[in-house]
Amino acid sequence: MPKNIVSIAILFFFSFSAFSQKANLSGVLTDGNEKAPVYNSVVALLTPVDSILYKFTRSDKKGNFNLKNVKAGNYILMTSHSQYADYVDAITMDENEKNIGTIDLKSKIELLREVVIKTGSIRIKGDTTSYRASDFIVDANANVEELLKKLPGIQVDRNGAIKAMGETVQKVLVDGEEFFGDDPGMAVKNLRADAVKEVQVFDKKSELAEFTGIDDGKTQKTINLKLKEDKKKGYFGKMDGANQPFTDADSRYNTNLMFSSFKGKRKLSAFLLNGNTGQDGLGWEDSEKFGARDNNISMNMDDDGNVSYEWVGDNNDGEPRINTQNGFIKNTNAGLQYTNKWNDKQNLNVSPKFNNQIYTNNSSRISQTQVGETQLNENRSTVTNVDRSNFKLNAVYDVKLDSVNSIKFSARTNFYDTDSDEFTDGATTGNDGILKNKQQRLFTTNSDKSALSAGFLFKHKFAKARRTFSLNSSWSMLNTNSDNFLKSSNESYVDGVLAAKDTINQNKIGDRTSQNFSASFSYSEPIAKQIALQFAYQIAYDKGKNNYFTYDYSEDTGRYDQLVSSLSNEFEQTIITHRPNLKLSYNAKKINYSIGSGFGFTSFDLLDKTMDKQYKRSYTNFFPSANFSYKYKSNSSLRVNYQGSTRQPTLDQLQPLRNNQDFFNQTVGNPDLKQSFTNNININQGSYDMLTETQIYQGLNFSTTSNAIIYSRVIDPETAKTVSRPINTNGNFSGNFYLGYGLKIKKLDMRADFSPSFGYNKSVLSINDKMGSAKNLNTGLSVYLNKSKQKHYDISLSNRFSFNRNSTSQNDEIKSFNTNNLNLDIGVFFAEKWKIATDYNLNTRQKTVDFQDNLTNQLWNARLQRTFKNDEFTAYFMVRDILNQNIGIQRNVYENTISQEQNDRLRRYAMIGFTWNFKNGGEKAKK
């Protein structure tokens, strides 16, 4: 009732308008499906500048409405009805009577409370947020990454990582399909922004959940780029080349070629990237897809509040750790993608890619490790040289057999080759400065990997609605052959006096194969109008072997032919899991939920062939799951998801084999490891107000893990030698909260976004057989402001403040520090064709008790460009790191160790370049 009184009061106030040219606006509201009149719907006119209500009325029993005495001008016409989706459209009135005819309204039940918007930059339909790309100003030849930086709720950091509504984007699709595989960077860095009609952000459900309509809680934050129709006819592309002038043969250069061709439903795309400025290098996430690392990592928080990953036991491949943000890299990256559809029944997507990298880096690391009352200080320098390449092929063939049956085949291959050498020189002292050990080592690697996988999915819909059956199977294999050499000199000291010296000269040969096969079926049955039951069953079979042999060098024969039994082992594992699952789901127009549980029956069969010892054991796990979503408004929703999951120990963690690559930091496997179990709950809420252009989203995540696998460390405080061994522990948990608030400041024509965050993590640690804990608190606040005017200027200002607090049970000392990152981006156009752009980054890191160095640095880049021929050609001159302050320093806190690492970075350089952005010439001719 109060709401109606306020509406009547507003109407009464605005009914007293000044005399001017006025006219009547009329029309008819009908049901879009039944064509019946819609009675008693509010029909309102709002002023577009400030969204203030100007006039409103209600439709009569025949659906007719009539707004009288409307002044000439521009308005927003809006309808509102409890049973129909809101309708919004722009309208212009003059002094003549206007009848806009029939407006078909859509049922909220049918559209799950969809908002139908024909104006405004953002549209929300169900769980999907869509941005109209043309409403966000970017340069004429900008790529999609620059467009994403303009969209409210989306952040792109300086390393190219994308977050949407506070969550990391895992997939970027183009017209609903993968673009050169599942690497998010390929589409956003190489597609033109002006080719995109719409950017859609949503949580992509699993294929089974999309088919059955029963949510399984498995989602991936996804961006889908919908291309303009005229861009899907003919071709478009880019050719870009830049080189450092007035230098020797080792000058900086980049070449970037991109081409896309469309004919009907056939799409062909190709790219070639070549350069030595670090563009499009493989990051950690991509190398994981190649099987380069077998998950022998531990997560920790760096001093910028970012999650990073640290080796806690190298695998037997001994591959070097590479971060392409550091060092110097020459990169060649090429790919081809072909997609086609025939008769809307067959869909083929094939994408081969090739990548080669030549990488060099010099790094120095200082670390402080607290062991009781003793502090161990390590200084280490490493020179790394890597030459690696890989060839990948992804293929998907989807066939719609008829209206109720479909089959999907998928296959992936990856061939990966690495040659590297790594020289390390280091020493460790006590807190009194007395030497404890010294080491020099050279480790050379030659490894070849092949990863193969295939999948099959059959789906069937019965005549009865929501009754479905699906059959899914997958197979994968990873094979690794390594031939490595270790040469090291290791000196141990007691009271600063040399006590022992170990010299190692060994050849390490590895042969590892792991295979996985899984098969499952799912059946869903509707048991009421809004209730369905799903039964599923899965069997998974994991088979692996790891044969690793170490040979000492023989002075007599001049060969590596003396087997080191203590460093050699043949090991096999077989893990079989049976998992039945039952789930009940409820689907209504506002509320959807599902609840269910599965049971996991897992058996381990481990065989140490070298020691002729077998380990057998079985586990039974309970897998509860629950999902709840509530669409309390047409553009607002609340989502709660709970999931239980297990994680199997890796082959390296299980195999009782010692890794002596680093003499003073060795690892050994543990065949008695159990699988870990994680309980995880996510709560997410988001809403968008179309009239005020205000967006708010928040999320809460909490997880706890039982039998978590950590590395127990035995540290000798006299020699500083550490032996790590994986064990199971309890008491590990983490929690994270984020909030985002974005709004349009209309008086200033400026976009503003605010994003506070909070994270807390507790992990169990074991040092010298004493159990303890490490705790990390991280809070932060991000602010982003943007103001732009097309072909005049574009200014963005952002700031990220982070506070970190770390403590361990090893001592009472609390280590806390804050960091701040300020970014300013300015682009100014002049003389129509000219543009000068500059970006400034100020990184401030608080000094700590452990590290007194000033880590504040400034990064300043600038670019001057001139476009020709309707922006088709661009000539530019750019300077990177004008102040020559690009330093690669990172601080990490991990358990009882704090470290600071400095790496080579590409410093100040200048480049002259030319870009040709070409479009379909045939389309121009038609015009």
UniProtKB/TrEMBL annotation:
Family annotation (Pfam families):
OMP_b-brl_3
**What are the alphabetically sorted keywords of the record?**
Signal
What positions does the domain Outer membrane protein beta-barrel occupy? Answer: 460-916
Q: Tell me which SUPFAM superfamilies the record gives.
A: Porins, Starch-binding domain-like
- Signal peptide segment: 1-22
Q: What domain of life does the native source organism fall in?
A: Bacteria
Q: Which InterPro entries match?
A: Carb-bd-like_fold, OMP_b-brl_3
Q: What is this protein called?
A: Outer membrane beta-barrel protein
